[in-house]
Amino acid sequence: MAVIRIENVSRWFGNVVAVNDVSIDITPGITGLLGPNGAGKSTLIHMMSGFLPPSTGRVTLDGDVIWHNTEAYRRIGLVPETETTYEFLDGREFVRANAELQGLDDPGAATERALETVEMTAAADRPVSTYSKGMRQRVKMASALVHDPAVLLLDEPFNGMDPRQRMHLMNLLRRMGEEGRTVLFSSHILEEVEQLASHIEVIVAGRHAASGDFRKIRRLMTDRPHRYLIRSSDDRALAAALIADPSTQGLELDVTEKALRVEAIDFHRFAEQLPRLARENDIRLLTVSPSDESLESVFSYLVSA
Amino acid sequence: MTAIYHPTVARLTFRALLGRRRALIMALLPMLLLAIAIAVRALNGADDRAAATVLGGFALAAMVPLVGVIAGTGAIAPEIDDGSVVYLLSKPVSRQTIITTKFIVACAVTGLFTVVPVYVAGLILNNNSQQIAFAFTAATAAAVVAYSAIFLLLGVVSRNAVVIGLIYALVWEALLGSLMPGVGNLSVQQWSLTLAEQIAASGANVTSTVSLTAGSILLVIATVGGVWYAGRRLASFSFAGDH
After folding, report:
1. Cross-chain Cβ contact B15/A89 below 8 Å
2. Residues 6+ apart with CB under 8 A from A241
3. pLDDT in tens, chain A (305 residues)
4. In three state form, how does the secondary structure of A160-218 look?
5. Which residues of A touch B11 (CB under 8 A)?
6. What ipTM does the predicted assembly reach?
7. B20 interface with A at CB cutoff 8 Å
8. Which of B88, B98, B152, B211 has an alpha carbon within 20 to 30 A of A167's alpha carbon?
9. Which residue on chain B is closest to A146 by alpha carbon?
10. Nearest CA in chain B to A140
């Protein structure tokens, strides 16, 4: 069980503060590091992967400081954002070079295992320079997995991938997470994080804006309107009862959907009041579903905050 | 104790240096030297002064530093430029080991394209009369080691390593070195030339602006210091953050 701990970390470049007093624990399972471009995600990953010292604070792997600690790489697999690898090598040679640099006892066997894991055995004899973006990403994954690391760090791994390649990589990462590895990936694409990460850390303008699963992040923002789609045994009566309560800001009777669209401004009160009002008015609730819990809405709220 | 050589690092570096256009450019210069040697011998016959002029004026003054720049900076700068160095550095291998390995490879490649051709050119020019071929071969070998260290360090510390290396070799050493005697104190060419001066017979008219002791000490300091500092800089290699 490997834990990367970011403790009160700030990092500045001259007068520019890239990361501002961030504290996060990255634990086993899949964590998505979400934020707009330039938010400080790469800076954080560089610090987690030992390629940047924090200006203040500490970044540790199971208690050991990662900066200036090449031994930490026995436990870390890094998939960098850069496209370029050693272009003159073929896929197998590239993965094998990584295995040898890790000092593995049987680099040949480890190479074949890693290539199989990413399903690149068939194309392993082709030069890396002939690979598509998705194949490059897979061979980079193989190079990061070759020493069976407890931690996997991926910087924008889905950039430029087509949907099929993306799905393949997501499945692979899910498997890595289920195996108990600590998997962290960064992304500015909301649906990627939503689909994959069980846990999300949101970075906005260098600050740690939110943490948790995305529903929880959403609930943290109680002052933001939450939209629900509700179906009940008597939508009109329920609408009348809800609009009388201060937790509800607005509602609409959707005739075609045969449902009620409700905008709540006080999440906690609304969650309490809805079942109570239904019971008091003898209304059966058939459907209560949040209609806009996409990360897009969470994110745009956080960015504008 | 830190190893000084890692075979995988060496293999990757050799392939990077010898597999691309770089090898062709490096091969052109010694071919030019041999062509000049053959032409001079054919036109002048065996001539000691011509031999010293060709080996000192072209081989040691231009060919060796140029090949040194290409191989020394090429051993690491392109990897840093394109970011692929991250695969090398995200491994439990000491950064000093990576540097010493790349230094050894840079020496081997620069040596391959300079030391042997210089000796062969010397034989062609005057059959090693007055030990001139041997003297310049020894000087070339010493210069190769120092240039490899200096240009490898340049490759680690600067994105403009090749340009700075060329300015050092062509402007500082070749041009200013011939105009201002003091420049020789900070010139690998002059440091290594002291070795040639010692080996060649006195009638060969091979002279350096620095003494043998000073030249030898400065060669060692430049080499050891360059490799050591390159290792230190690589140990603190960092990315600049978000793009």
Report:
1. yes
2. A277, A278, A280, A281, A283
3. 899 999 999 999 999 999 999 999 999 999 999 888 888 999 999 999 999 999 999 999 999 999 999 999 999 999 999 888 899 999 999 999 999 999 999 999 999 999 999 999 999 999 999 999 889 999 999 999 999 999 999 999 998 788 888 898 999 999 999 999 999 999 987 778 888 998 999 998 899 988 888 777 666 655 567 888 999 999 999 999 999 999 998 999 998 889 999 998 888 889 899 999 999 999 999 999 887 665 556 666 666 65
4. CCCHHHHHHHHHHHHHHHHCCCEEEEEECCHHHHHHHCCEEEEEECCEEEEEECHHHHH
5. 97
6. 0.92
7. yes
8. B88
9. B91
10. B87
Show which of residues 120-149 on chain A sit within 8 Å of chain B, judged by CB atoms: 143
Selecting from A11, A70, A72 the residue whose C-beta is nearest the C-beta of B94 gives A70
Measured between beta carbons, the chain B residues lying within 8 angstroms of A100 are 7-8
- Tokens representing B56 are 């000192």
Site of tokens 């002939």: A130
Reported as half-sphere exposure (CB side, CA atoms, 13 A), residue B52 has a value of: 21
Residue in the block written with tokens 């000192």: B56
Q: What residues of B are in contact with residue A89 (Cβ under 8 Å)?
A: 12, 15
CA distance A250 to chain B (A): 41
Which residues in chain B touch residue A203, judged by CB atoms under 8 angstroms apart? Answer: none
Which chain B residues are Cβ-neighbours of A82 within 8 angstroms?
82-84, 86
Structural domains of chain A in order of their starting residue, each with its CATH number = 4-219 (3.40.50.300), 223-291 (3.30.70.100)
Task: Evaluate whether B137 touches B196 at the Cβ level (below 8 Å).
Answer: no
Query: And the tokens for B198?
Result: 């010692």
According to DSSP, the residues that pair with A230 across neighbouring strands are A260, A288
B21 to chain A, any CB pair closer than 8 A? The answer is no
Question: How many other C-beta atoms lie within 10 A of the C-beta of residue A256?
Answer: 5
Q: Which residues of B34-63 are buried (b: 16+ CB within 10 A; e: fewer)?
A: eebbeebbeeeeebbebbbebbbebbbbbb
Q: Which amino acid is at B155?
A: G
